[in-house]
Every structure is written in C-alpha cells, then in structure tokens.
Amino acid sequence: MTSTKLVSGVNNKANGVDLVVENAKGQQNMKADVVLLCVGRRPYTDGLALEKAGLEANKFGRIEINEHWQTKKSHIYAIGDVVDGPMLAHKAEEEGIAAVE
Prior knowledge:
about 10% helix, 2 domains, alpha+beta, about 25% strand
C-alpha cells in the first residue's frame, strides 16, 4: 500500500494482525497475517569513493546517467539503487545485463 501516510492502530491476535491505516481515501481497517512496514528508501553510495572516480551524487543522492547507464565518465556505468527509478532488485539485474551488452 503505497502513499499510506500513517498506521494508526495495530492489534496483534493469535491468527494475525488487525490494522487501521490512513491514506488519501481516509481511514481503512484491514486484517493481515503479517505486517512489513517500509518507511522509505534512499540510494546508498557511502564507501564508493565517488570523488576519486570523478563522480558525485546529485541532491537526491543518485548518480546521474545517460540512456546507456553511462555516468559523466563514459567508461563508468551505474545501475540499480544509485540511479533514478524504482529501487527493485529485478530492475537492477536487468540494467546490469543491458549495460554489459
């Protein structure tokens, strides 16, 4: 459930969880077996030494690339969570294959 701004109630039960969530449509009650809560993701470039490679992250922490995943240093490519787009493992895997090809 994306764009949900608040989980305002949780009641653990022997057979699952009762939740109260608030989103753009208002308050919603729901039942679930388990709950996984993610409160945002960000690119993780710490330790990559971008400056040594002559690169830098933009104001969102991402590395700028062209349509072929090349950075401003044309021999250096970037894919996955450090570039713009959804942070999904299968996306990064496909980007890696395409960049190599």
